[in-house]
Design a protein that fits this description.
Helices cover 31% and strands 15% of the residues. It is built from 8 helices and 9 strands. Strands 1-2-3-5-4 form a 5-stranded antiparallel β-sheet, with helices on one face. A two-stranded antiparallel ribbon has the order 6-9. Strands 7-8 form a two-stranded antiparallel sheet. β1 and β2 (15-21) form a beta hairpin. The longest helix is centred in the middle third of the chain and has 21 residues, at 102-122. It starts with 7 loop residues before the first strand and ends in a 22-residue tail after the last helix. It holds the Pfam family Pkinase. ATP binds at residue 31. Residues 3-293 form the Protein kinase domain. It is a single-pass type I membrane protein.
Protein backbone atom coordinates (compact mmCIF):
# COMPACT_ATOMS: atom_id res chain seq x y z
CA UNK A 1 0.00 0.00 0.00
CA UNK A 2 2.82 2.42 0.86
CA UNK A 3 5.27 1.04 -1.75
CA UNK A 4 7.65 -0.04 1.03
CA UNK A 5 7.12 3.21 2.97
CA UNK A 6 8.45 5.31 0.08
CA UNK A 7 6.79 8.67 0.86
CA UNK A 8 6.92 9.97 4.42
CA UNK A 9 4.25 12.57 5.25
CA UNK A 10 5.14 13.39 8.83
CA UNK A 11 6.40 12.21 12.18
CA UNK A 12 5.35 12.60 15.80
CA UNK A 13 5.84 10.99 19.20
CA UNK A 14 3.43 8.21 18.17
CA UNK A 15 5.31 7.11 15.02
CA UNK A 16 5.49 7.95 11.33
CA UNK A 17 2.80 8.71 8.73
CA UNK A 18 3.32 7.50 5.14
CA UNK A 19 1.45 8.16 1.91
CA UNK A 20 -0.28 5.11 0.48
CA UNK A 21 -2.44 4.09 -2.46
CA UNK A 22 -5.31 1.63 -2.49
CA UNK A 23 -5.91 -0.84 -5.34
CA UNK A 24 -8.64 1.44 -6.73
CA UNK A 25 -6.14 4.32 -6.89
CA UNK A 26 -7.52 6.15 -3.85
CA UNK A 27 -4.90 7.86 -1.67
CA UNK A 28 -4.56 7.16 2.05
CA UNK A 29 -2.36 8.14 4.99
CA UNK A 30 -0.88 5.20 6.88
CA UNK A 31 0.10 5.94 10.47
CA UNK A 32 2.59 3.34 11.72
CA UNK A 33 2.88 3.42 15.51
CA UNK A 34 6.18 3.06 17.35
CA UNK A 35 6.57 -0.39 18.85
CA UNK A 36 7.57 1.16 22.17
CA UNK A 37 4.50 3.44 22.30
CA UNK A 38 2.07 1.80 24.72
CA UNK A 39 3.41 -1.74 24.71
CA UNK A 40 -0.02 -3.19 25.50
CA UNK A 41 -1.43 -1.32 22.52
CA UNK A 42 -3.84 0.62 24.71
CA UNK A 43 -3.33 3.95 22.93
CA UNK A 44 -3.79 2.25 19.56
CA UNK A 45 -6.95 0.44 20.64
CA UNK A 46 -8.21 3.67 22.17
CA UNK A 47 -7.79 5.53 18.88
CA UNK A 48 -9.51 2.81 16.84
CA UNK A 49 -12.38 2.49 19.33
CA UNK A 50 -12.89 6.24 19.59
CA UNK A 51 -12.73 7.27 15.96
CA UNK A 52 -14.80 4.32 14.74
CA UNK A 53 -17.72 5.87 16.64
CA UNK A 54 -17.54 9.09 14.62
CA UNK A 55 -18.78 10.35 11.27
CA UNK A 56 -18.46 14.07 10.63
CA UNK A 57 -17.08 16.29 7.86
CA UNK A 58 -14.65 17.88 10.37
CA UNK A 59 -13.36 14.63 11.88
CA UNK A 60 -10.84 12.55 9.93
CA UNK A 61 -12.18 9.22 8.58
CA UNK A 62 -10.58 5.95 9.67
CA UNK A 63 -10.62 3.54 6.73
CA UNK A 64 -8.95 0.56 8.39
CA UNK A 65 -6.18 -0.68 10.67
CA UNK A 66 -3.53 -3.36 11.09
CA UNK A 67 -2.89 -5.05 14.45
CA UNK A 68 -0.39 -7.92 14.08
CA UNK A 69 1.65 -8.49 17.21
CA UNK A 70 3.85 -5.44 17.71
CA UNK A 71 2.99 -4.06 14.27
CA UNK A 72 0.22 -1.51 14.43
CA UNK A 73 -0.99 0.86 11.75
CA UNK A 74 -4.01 3.08 11.15
CA UNK A 75 -5.25 3.87 7.65
CA UNK A 76 -6.84 7.29 7.26
CA UNK A 77 -8.22 9.31 4.37
CA UNK A 78 -5.41 11.29 2.73
CA UNK A 79 -5.30 15.05 3.43
CA UNK A 80 -3.49 16.83 0.52
CA UNK A 81 -2.74 20.01 2.48
CA UNK A 82 -1.27 18.23 5.50
CA UNK A 83 -1.50 19.73 8.98
CA UNK A 84 -2.54 23.23 9.98
CA UNK A 85 0.83 23.61 11.71
CA UNK A 86 2.78 24.44 8.55
CA UNK A 87 0.33 27.20 7.61
CA UNK A 88 0.76 28.91 11.00
CA UNK A 89 4.41 28.54 11.91
CA UNK A 90 6.26 28.47 8.57
CA UNK A 91 8.35 31.63 8.97
CA UNK A 92 9.95 31.17 5.56
CA UNK A 93 6.59 31.48 3.84
CA UNK A 94 5.70 35.07 4.72
CA UNK A 95 4.07 35.85 1.38
CA UNK A 96 3.91 32.40 -0.16
CA UNK A 97 1.01 30.05 -0.74
CA UNK A 98 1.48 28.88 2.84
CA UNK A 99 -0.11 32.14 4.01
CA UNK A 100 -3.88 31.77 4.16
CA UNK A 101 -6.23 34.72 3.93
CA UNK A 102 -8.45 35.64 6.89
CA UNK A 103 -11.62 34.19 5.38
CA UNK A 104 -9.88 30.79 5.13
CA UNK A 105 -8.61 31.14 8.71
CA UNK A 106 -12.16 31.91 9.81
CA UNK A 107 -13.65 28.92 7.95
CA UNK A 108 -10.98 26.63 9.43
CA UNK A 109 -11.75 27.95 12.95
CA UNK A 110 -15.47 27.37 12.39
CA UNK A 111 -14.92 23.87 10.97
CA UNK A 112 -12.79 22.79 13.95
CA UNK A 113 -15.42 24.23 16.32
CA UNK A 114 -18.14 22.22 14.57
CA UNK A 115 -16.03 19.05 14.74
CA UNK A 116 -15.42 19.51 18.47
CA UNK A 117 -19.08 20.32 19.11
CA UNK A 118 -19.96 17.06 17.36
CA UNK A 119 -17.48 15.08 19.50
CA UNK A 120 -18.85 16.65 22.69
CA UNK A 121 -22.56 16.50 21.88
CA UNK A 122 -23.29 14.80 18.56
CA UNK A 123 -22.22 11.20 19.25
CA UNK A 124 -23.97 8.57 21.36
CA UNK A 125 -21.04 8.90 23.76
CA UNK A 126 -19.21 12.12 24.59
CA UNK A 127 -15.65 12.14 23.21
CA UNK A 128 -13.05 14.40 24.81
CA UNK A 129 -10.01 14.77 22.54
CA UNK A 130 -7.38 16.09 25.00
CA UNK A 131 -4.80 16.94 22.32
CA UNK A 132 -6.22 19.75 20.19
CA UNK A 133 -3.28 21.56 18.55
CA UNK A 134 -2.30 22.65 15.01
CA UNK A 135 -0.36 19.42 14.37
CA UNK A 136 -3.55 17.38 14.89
CA UNK A 137 -5.74 19.42 12.53
CA UNK A 138 -5.50 18.14 8.95
CA UNK A 139 -6.64 20.05 5.86
CA UNK A 140 -8.18 18.52 2.75
CA UNK A 141 -7.80 19.85 -0.80
CA UNK A 142 -10.33 22.63 -0.11
CA UNK A 143 -8.81 23.50 3.30
CA UNK A 144 -11.71 21.88 5.14
CA UNK A 145 -10.25 21.03 8.59
CA UNK A 146 -10.42 17.53 10.08
CA UNK A 147 -9.66 16.73 13.72
CA UNK A 148 -7.23 13.79 13.92
CA UNK A 149 -5.11 11.78 16.38
CA UNK A 150 -7.42 10.36 19.03
CA UNK A 151 -4.69 8.48 20.95
CA UNK A 152 -5.30 10.51 24.12
CA UNK A 153 -9.07 10.79 23.76
CA UNK A 154 -11.43 9.78 26.53
CA UNK A 155 -14.94 8.44 26.03
CA UNK A 156 -17.63 9.14 28.61
CA UNK A 157 -21.41 9.10 28.74
CA UNK A 158 -23.38 12.07 27.45
CA UNK A 159 -24.56 12.83 31.00
CA UNK A 160 -21.04 12.95 32.45
CA UNK A 161 -19.92 16.55 32.72
CA UNK A 162 -16.87 15.84 34.88
CA UNK A 163 -14.37 13.04 34.39
CA UNK A 164 -11.63 11.60 36.59
CA UNK A 165 -8.08 11.37 35.27
CA UNK A 166 -5.02 9.91 36.92
CA UNK A 167 -2.43 11.73 34.81
CA UNK A 168 -2.22 14.97 32.82
CA UNK A 169 -2.57 14.38 29.09
CA UNK A 170 -2.01 16.66 26.12
CA UNK A 171 0.70 18.98 24.81
CA UNK A 172 2.29 21.76 26.85
CA UNK A 173 1.01 25.13 25.71
CA UNK A 174 -2.46 23.79 24.97
CA UNK A 175 -3.30 21.90 28.20
CA UNK A 176 -6.03 23.48 30.33
CA UNK A 177 -4.95 24.48 33.89
CA UNK A 178 -7.39 22.04 35.55
CA UNK A 179 -5.75 19.10 33.76
CA UNK A 180 -2.53 19.96 35.64
CA UNK A 181 -4.16 20.82 38.95
CA UNK A 182 -7.71 20.25 40.25
CA UNK A 183 -7.34 23.53 42.17
CA UNK A 184 -8.42 25.26 38.95
CA UNK A 185 -11.61 23.19 38.60
CA UNK A 186 -12.85 19.87 37.27
CA UNK A 187 -11.67 18.22 34.06
CA UNK A 188 -14.44 18.17 31.44
CA UNK A 189 -15.24 18.98 27.80
CA UNK A 190 -14.26 22.57 28.73
CA UNK A 191 -10.63 21.35 28.75
CA UNK A 192 -10.87 20.87 24.95
CA UNK A 193 -12.38 24.37 24.70
CA UNK A 194 -9.24 25.80 26.34
CA UNK A 195 -6.92 23.98 23.89
CA UNK A 196 -9.05 25.17 20.98
CA UNK A 197 -8.80 28.80 22.17
CA UNK A 198 -5.01 28.63 22.50
CA UNK A 199 -4.74 27.15 19.02
CA UNK A 200 -6.94 29.83 17.41
CA UNK A 201 -4.83 32.55 19.06
CA UNK A 202 -1.77 30.98 17.40
CA UNK A 203 -3.59 31.05 14.06
CA UNK A 204 -4.32 34.74 14.54
CA UNK A 205 -0.79 35.63 15.71
CA UNK A 206 0.93 33.41 13.16
CA UNK A 207 3.32 32.29 15.93
CA UNK A 208 3.53 30.20 19.07
CA UNK A 209 1.70 31.84 21.96
CA UNK A 210 4.96 31.84 23.90
CA UNK A 211 7.77 33.34 21.82
CA UNK A 212 11.02 33.97 23.68
CA UNK A 213 12.74 35.29 20.55
CA UNK A 214 10.88 38.59 20.28
CA UNK A 215 12.71 41.68 21.50
CA UNK A 216 9.91 43.27 23.48
CA UNK A 217 9.20 41.41 26.75
CA UNK A 218 5.51 42.43 26.62
CA UNK A 219 5.16 40.54 23.33
CA UNK A 220 6.52 37.24 24.64
CA UNK A 221 3.09 35.91 25.61
CA UNK A 222 0.67 36.59 22.77
CA UNK A 223 -2.66 36.22 24.68
CA UNK A 224 -1.60 38.98 27.12
CA UNK A 225 -0.30 41.20 24.34
CA UNK A 226 -3.45 40.90 22.24
CA UNK A 227 -5.73 41.37 25.28
CA UNK A 228 -3.98 44.64 26.11
CA UNK A 229 -4.53 45.84 22.53
CA UNK A 230 -8.24 45.02 22.78
CA UNK A 231 -8.49 46.68 26.20
CA UNK A 232 -7.00 49.93 24.87
CA UNK A 233 -9.07 49.57 21.68
CA UNK A 234 -5.85 49.78 19.67
CA UNK A 235 -5.34 48.45 16.17
CA UNK A 236 -4.14 44.86 16.40
CA UNK A 237 -1.22 45.46 14.04
CA UNK A 238 -1.56 42.00 12.54
CA UNK A 239 -0.37 41.25 9.01
CA UNK A 240 -2.57 40.71 5.98
CA UNK A 241 -5.63 42.60 7.32
CA UNK A 242 -6.76 44.17 4.05
CA UNK A 243 -10.20 45.57 4.76
CA UNK A 244 -12.92 46.14 7.35
CA UNK A 245 -14.29 42.63 6.84
CA UNK A 246 -10.90 41.14 7.76
CA UNK A 247 -10.68 43.42 10.81
CA UNK A 248 -14.11 42.32 12.09
CA UNK A 249 -13.35 38.63 11.46
CA UNK A 250 -10.03 38.79 13.32
CA UNK A 251 -11.43 40.69 16.33
CA UNK A 252 -14.26 38.16 16.60
CA UNK A 253 -11.79 35.24 16.51
CA UNK A 254 -9.63 36.89 19.20
CA UNK A 255 -12.47 37.74 21.59
CA UNK A 256 -13.94 34.24 21.20
CA UNK A 257 -10.51 32.68 21.88
CA UNK A 258 -9.98 34.80 25.00
CA UNK A 259 -13.29 33.48 26.36
CA UNK A 260 -12.10 29.92 25.61
CA UNK A 261 -8.88 30.32 27.63
CA UNK A 262 -10.51 31.62 30.81
CA UNK A 263 -8.79 30.01 33.77
CA UNK A 264 -12.03 28.92 35.47
CA UNK A 265 -13.60 26.20 33.26
CA UNK A 266 -17.11 27.38 34.17
CA UNK A 267 -16.39 30.75 32.53
CA UNK A 268 -15.49 29.15 29.20
CA UNK A 269 -18.17 28.78 26.53
CA UNK A 270 -19.36 25.43 25.20
CA UNK A 271 -18.40 24.68 21.60
CA UNK A 272 -22.03 25.44 20.62
CA UNK A 273 -21.59 28.93 22.05
CA UNK A 274 -18.23 29.27 20.27
CA UNK A 275 -19.96 28.59 16.93
CA UNK A 276 -22.64 31.11 17.84
CA UNK A 277 -19.97 33.76 18.59
CA UNK A 278 -18.11 33.09 15.33
CA UNK A 279 -21.28 33.22 13.23
CA UNK A 280 -22.81 36.21 15.05
CA UNK A 281 -22.03 39.91 14.78
CA UNK A 282 -19.01 41.51 16.41
CA UNK A 283 -21.31 43.78 18.45
CA UNK A 284 -22.92 40.76 20.12
CA UNK A 285 -19.56 39.47 21.45
CA UNK A 286 -18.33 41.04 24.70
CA UNK A 287 -14.67 41.23 25.66
CA UNK A 288 -14.09 38.72 28.50
CA UNK A 289 -12.18 39.30 31.76
CA UNK A 290 -8.42 39.07 31.31
CA UNK A 291 -7.40 35.40 31.53
CA UNK A 292 -5.22 34.85 34.60
CA UNK A 293 -2.34 33.11 32.91
CA UNK A 294 1.34 32.72 33.55
CA UNK A 295 3.38 35.04 31.33
CA UNK A 296 7.00 33.85 31.12
CA UNK A 297 9.65 36.47 31.73
CA UNK A 298 12.86 36.61 29.76
CA UNK A 299 15.80 35.22 31.72
CA UNK A 300 18.45 37.88 32.19
CA UNK A 301 22.00 36.89 31.30
Amino acid sequence: MTNSFAVKLGQGGFGVVYKGKLEDGGLVAVKVLNESKGKDGQEFINEVATISKTSHVNVVTLLGFCFEGARRALIYEFMPNGSLEKFIFDENAAESSHRLNWETHYQISLGIARGLEYLHNGCNTRILHFDIKPHNILLDADFVPKISDFGLAKICTRKESVISMLDPRGTVGYIAPEVFSRNFGEVSHKSDVYSYGMMILEMVGGRKNINLRVDNTSEIYFPHWVYKRLELDEELGLKRIRNEEDRVTVRKMIIMSLWCIQTDPSNRPTMSKVIEMLEGSLDSVQVPPKPFLYSPSRSRA
